[in-house]
Amino acid sequence: MELRLLSYVVAIAGEGSVSAAARRLHLSQPTLSRQLRELERSLGAELFTRAGRGIAPTPAGEVLVRRARTVLAEAETLLALVAAGFGAAVLPDSRRALRRVGVTPRPLAGTSTTLHLVWRSGDANPLVERVRGALTDLG
To answer: What's the pTM?
Structure first.
């Protein structure tokens, strides 16, 4: 399954509408609807119920949306770490969630450059949106 398809599912769930999600993703509504139908067919499960102008995840869709958010956040973090030349240590906490501790990026090692770090904690989707919107450098 492609990350692109996961981002479509997350956008549809977040917007509650295929049309609104298509606008957000800069796609046509028919294209996004077709992609959703093809994904549902390939998975053999209905992911959303369509009622009037709205759309809501089915129980299977809720599971996919929740896990897709996690996968997309991890992919964004991985790409950002690789692009920035970061190494990272992953430490499990008592709830079995993952905490990431970054190390100094190689280009800044041994220089007098000051880094401004702000720790934000929360759901992955808003953090990913901050990275996409260039409000945060690393999520």
So the answer is: 0.60
Contacts of 90 (CB under 8 A, 6+ apart): 98, 99, 100
Could you list the residue range(s) of the whole structural domain that residue 71 is in?
Answer: 1-139
**Alpha-carbon torsion, ordered 71, 34, 16, 50, to 10 deg:** -120
Instruction: Report CA 16 to chain centroid distance, whole Å.
Output: 17
Backbone angles phi, psi at 70, to 5 degrees: -65, -45
Q: Is the dihedral of CA 139, 104, 90, 99 positive or negative?
A: negative
**Rounded Cα gap, residues 95 and 58, in angstroms:** 27
If one counts the domains in the chain, the total is: 1
Express each pLDDT in 73-107 by its tens digit: 888 888 877 777 655 444 344 333 444 444 444 55
- pLDDT tens for each residue of 112-139: 555 555 666 666 677 777 777 666 666 5
